[in-house]
Amino acid sequence: MARFALILPAAGRSTRFNNGKTKKVFTNLEGRAVWLRSAEPFVNRDDVHQIIVAINPDDRELFERRFRPNVAFLNIQVVEGGKERADTVAKALAAVDPTCDYVAIHDAARPCIASESIDAVFSAAVEHGAALLAIPVADTLKRADAAGSFAVETVPRAGLYQAQTPQVFRRDWLVEAYANRSSLAENATDDARLVEALGRPCRLVPGSPLNIKITTQVDLKLAAAILDLLPKSKPDPPASPFADERAGW
Hints:
By secondary structure, the chain is an alpha/beta fold. It is built from 8 helices and 11 strands. It has helices at residues 34-43, 60-74, 85-94, 115-128, 171-179, 181-184, 191-197, 217-229; strands spanning 4-10, 28-29, 32-33, 48-55, 77-80, 102-105, 130-136, 141-144, 151-155, 161-170, 203-206. The strands form 3 sheets. The protein has a 7-stranded mixed β-sheet with strand order 5-4-1-6-10-7-11, with helices on both faces. Helix 3 (85-94) packs across helix 5 (171-179).
């Protein structure tokens, strides 16, 4: 069986979400923090041998206070991220166990991933070396003027896909991509872009519109509704017996 490591980047600033109280990944979603909801579908998998969450160094005290029991109970490794997302993933990648054949990177703010989607993208990564969840763009796309005030062009949507996570790669491919990221793709917005720049195509695996990424307060409400719709193919990991991570909200 292939061995997978999971990286959850959780060091962002949540500028579009921030309600002045807490970041989106630490917000309570149906009884547990968003980042925990994002991690849980991977915890009981036999093929996932390491889970790493990368946090902002400024959040270390808060994270330790609220989530230390959960991290210990679920055997999750914590590292400090960097200034940009790519820096954060690079630091987490350096902590990946070399015995893991593949690395999955999943948004810590994407808590509605279904187990069937994980199965599919993991299998595709083993077959092709790199794979990501994606859905075809369904809406009409408009290009705006420089001020963002007027539509000046309709962009053909044929062949366009909206990328999701997990994105899963052979560990050696991802290590090579990040080692050369400054020359491969400046300001890459996802990890597949860096691997593509090496000349390694990434297999597209059908995703789901329910696999949303929380960006705004409205998204949080949608995620709560979606969680009620997802099938429970495996039981939730047992709650930590040591502490309730909701304390202090």
